[in-house]
Structures are given as C-alpha cells and as structure tokens.
Amino acid sequence: MKMDLTKAELRRRILLKRDSLSAFEREVKSIQICEKIIQMLDPEKIKTIMLYRSIRSEVQLALLESTCKSLKIRTAYPVCRENGQMLAVDSTVWKKGAFGIEEPDMDSGEVIDPATLDLIVCPCVAFDDRGFRLGMGGGYYDRFLQKANADAQIWAVAFEIQKVDSIPEDPWDLKMDRVVTEKVK
C-alpha cells in the first residue's frame, strides 16, 4: 500500500482489510502465527512473557497462551489505566476493563515490573519491513515499552494483509525486534 496517508487514515484502511478476513481465516492464520512463535520460544531464556487477549479481528493467541502455561512460562497481560498508562498483570481471574477489553483482575493478580519481562507480544494494526508498527492510536504500548528491559524481545503479531510499505514515524515509536505473520519465511 502506497504511504502518503496519515496514521489515522492508514489505521482505518488496514482495519477494514483485517476485518474483511473471515473468522475461519483469522483462526487458521492465528494458529500458524502461534506455531511460529512457539518454535522460537526458548524456555531457558524466556521466563516471563506478556501476551494480550484479542479483540475484534486481531491475531488470536490462545494456542500460544496454553503452550506457555504448559512450558511453565509466566504470562502477564495488559491492563489499560485511565491515565493513559498500561500495566502488565499476572492473574487467573478476568473481567471487562477499559474499552470493554477482557483483562486480568488486578485485585486477584500481581502487577509485573516491565523490566522483568523477557518477551512482549504486541498487537498491531499495520507494520512495515523495517519493524515499525501502527497501533490503535492510544499510545499505551508506546509508553509501556519505554519501561521494558533493554534485553527484552518485543515482537508484533499481524496478518500478512496488514503489511504496508512504510509506517509514518513519530519520535516515540519503537521498532519491533520482529513481526510475526502467517507467511512462511
């Protein structure tokens, strides 16, 4: 996709493309993405991972989540706060949180220091070959990733249909260490 669009227009167009995938296509491609990540996981190095629970047409990480549990890799999930901040929380109790997103219950869980995360898996709306991602526009991940351990791996997951020529960058945008799609490489 040619890139002379604003972030908002690019977001709108790519979300329409992503939403056009059938539920079956999203499920199959999500499983392929999870399988690729699972092959790259090293339980000796990755002790704590931050995942997310998908909304709308995002990549679904259920297979990755269950595999992490079986490998005894600690999992944390984002909790968006009203002040624009995001926390990583490890909990087995879930509730509807900000924006109607399912998130871990902070009262029954534990807030995880971002500096202790070994791998952070981020959703994205669009991505480019350079490793830049476009999120939903709230900046939650941008602010959170600034607090992560410098050695932590930061991976975005997306469907290949979300790839664009170039993401417009702002000074606070971080490049992902990897973008994992269903495409065989």
- Arithmetic mean pLDDT: 91
What distance lies between the first and last C-alpha atoms, to the nearest angstrom?
21 Å
The H-level CATH homologous superfamily, spelled out, is NagB/RpiA/CoA transferase-like
- CATH architectural arrangement: 3-Layer(aba) Sandwich
SS-derived structural category: alpha/beta
The shape, in one word, is globular
Strand arrangement in the largest pleated sheet: 6-3-2-1-7-10-11
Any low-confidence stretches, pLDDT <50, length ≥5? Answer: none
Task: Give the helix proportion (percent range).
Answer: 10-25%
Oligomeric nature of the chains:
single chain
Q: Summarize the biggest pleated sheet.
A: 7 strands, mixed
Strand content: 15-25%
Can you tell me the CATH topology?
Rossmann fold
Total count of domains: 1
CATH first level: Alpha Beta
Strand runs, count: 11
What Rg, in angstroms, do the CA atoms define? Answer: 16 Å
H/E element string? Answer: HHEHEEEEEEEEHEE
The number of helical segments is 4
Layout of secondary structure:
Blueprint: H1 7-19, H2 23-40, E1 48-50, H3 62-70, E2 74-80, E3 86-90, E4 94-96, E5 102-104, E6 110-112, E7 119-123, E8 126-127, E9 133-134, H4 140-145, E10 153-157, E11 178-180
Parallel strand pairs: 1-2, 1-7, 7-10, 10-11
Antiparallel strand pairs: 2-3, 3-6, 4-5, 8-9
Can you offer a commentary on this structure?
The chain is α/β, with parallel strands linked by helices and 185 residues long. The protein has a single domain, classed as NagB/RpiA/CoA transferase-like (Rossmann fold). It has four helices and eleven strands. It has helices at 7-19, 23-40, 62-70, 140-145, and strands at 48-50, 74-80, 86-90, 94-96, 102-104, 110-112, 119-123, 126-127, 133-134, 153-157, 178-180. Helix 2 packs parallel to helix 3. The longest helix is centred in the first third of the chain and has 18 residues, at 23-40. The chain starts with 6 loop residues before the first helix and ends in a 5-residue tail after the last strand. The model has no long low-confidence stretch (mean pLDDT 91).
